[in-house]
User: Fold these one by one.
Assistant:
Number 1:
Amino acid sequence: MNTQIYELDDKNIDMDIIKAAAEIIRRNGTVVFPTETVYGLGANALSKDAARSIYEAKGRPSDNPLIVHVSSIDMLLYVIGESLSDKARLLINKFWPGPLTLIFKKSKNIPVEVTSGLDTVAVRMPDNEIALELIKQSGLPIAAPSANISGKPSPTKAEHVINDLNGRVDAILCGSSSRVGVESTILDLSVEVPVILRPGGITFEDLNAVLGEVKIDKGLVSKETVPKAPGMKYTHYAPEADMTIVKGGLNAVADKIMSLAEQYKGQGKKVGILATDETKDRYQADLVISMGSRENMYTAAAGIFDALREFDKQEIDIILAEALSEENIGMAVMNRLKKAAGFNIIEV
């Protein structure tokens, strides 16, 4: 497949390019576009054939539902099979456009290929002008998972997408780096007490402040419990190297990581260390990368996937990663780290 690659300025969008990409969506093609979370691989959410093309391009398991992106409330109502509840209105007024995906009962307009056979549909409104204009110009809701090969670190830069999907999709819209850096929070509104199925850019604390009561899916905190969201049971975000997370007091963590690094180097392994701004100078290894600051965990969220991809680029054999606090946005960052490491965690 010949992939058309377009460079776009987020602040001065070339509408001719957007209209060309929208036409690809209307004819059931695939278009990669930037969002505030990660880059998305989009296609017509009303077409079963378009949905299948997304799964094929990513190598994505067919029981992993797609998130539908909308640009208006009218489009949302067309996608869902119910009127908006008071809770939904509160959340939409507070957090949309933004990194919050809401699960509703689906309407008959959405094919089962998009929802993997479920009677519910996940929907969000992205906070990115390129994404919103693409949806508006196409006149269609757009189904879009992250624009990466399934299981690999999600793409937060155009170069990540080009490396993964050039030749697999019809077009790639290259914008700026994703400012949130982790996927959207998924909140199930189809149950009496809303449940977080995936932590993301909108935190548990944010949601609890608005709704008063929110639960967290047990599968997010336990390796033994299968997450409710079908796609969350798969290995995600994984670099090529084996990865271990070290958890505990900061000094003990640093000592343990250096001890393990020396051990692996003695075995001839190329060692990478995933640290933070506050600790990166403590380490010596083949590659030391800071994912961001412990004082501002949003920087860690924005940097985590780029860091994991850099380890792949440098052909690192072993990654040793510091654990972070799981409060606020830290829950989302640690969720990605745990999945990337296959829940391989050492406590010190």
Number 2:
Amino acid sequence: MSERRAYLYTGIGETVGVVTLDGRPERLVAEWDGDDSLDAEGVRGVARVKKIERAFNSAFVALPGSADLLLPMRQDMPKLVEGQLVEIEIKTPSRRDKSAVARFIGPGDGDPRVTAHAPTVEELLRLWVKSGSPTQGLAALEAVEAAEAEALMTVFALPGGGDISIESTRALVAIDVDLGNRDGDSKKAARAANMAAFTTAARVLRLKGLAGLVVFDLVGRGHDGPALTTAARNAFAIDNPGVGIGPISKFGALEMIVPRRTKPILDRLLDETGGLSARAGALRLVRAFEREGRADPGGRLVGRCSVAVADTFAALDVALADKIGRRFTVSPVVDWGNDRLEVSTS
């Protein structure tokens, strides 16, 4: 039987939650100081229609203080006009290149306002894992760092051999299944690898926060369509409602739709170039200072990092000094990437 555990890490500038499934990270959700609290699933309110896009059968609406939200128009909705009020709920938070998406609840009245905020990280963890309180402290930090490391990976080993590669594009998430060195009859080995691929991919997509159109490039030929479709449906059952699975094509591809509910975690961890973001690097530096500070309570701490990480760390400096004392210095290194940092005692 599968076992899920929840971990909650509250650090300087961040609150991070992790869910593990049988010891492997399955979900990673974070709140950083300064986040837009209105850009999250579950926010509800009365918004004003700013613009109608008839060509795309959509409207742009906005809550007070929020960015524009995309509101798809359905046939069962009343006709919208610019300037009117509508009650909406955010269905999908924004992504790096996409606006947040709202769903229509009904006509609005009164003034534009927020009527319900999104769940906190702890509330989400309790929703996903209903047994007891989330684990906190050092164990939670270790779970966060393990989850971040796996979320940044592209290739994931399958039990029994082989692997999958998961890559996201603007249009879809592509998953390539590779047989690798899996032993046995080639047809049986391919079937087993494809079955395992669904289970592993479902966990990793939840970890990365990836969804939308998902395409599996299955290994082998002559696929047992009903068996593989059932395996995919079971692997993604926890993501319902909204999962849709298509037939396996003659080219060996299986297409799925998985509902988007969270921001992709890589939008936080990576910058536009695909490298570690300066903010993520600065938070890692804070964690490293705290870890070394616990190991050597009286020592002077010296940190080295990229210029961008050092600049971003400056906003966290005072809070860290309040927590561990003013016993650390940061030295930026011009040619270092944001993913490289060192903390030592002197």
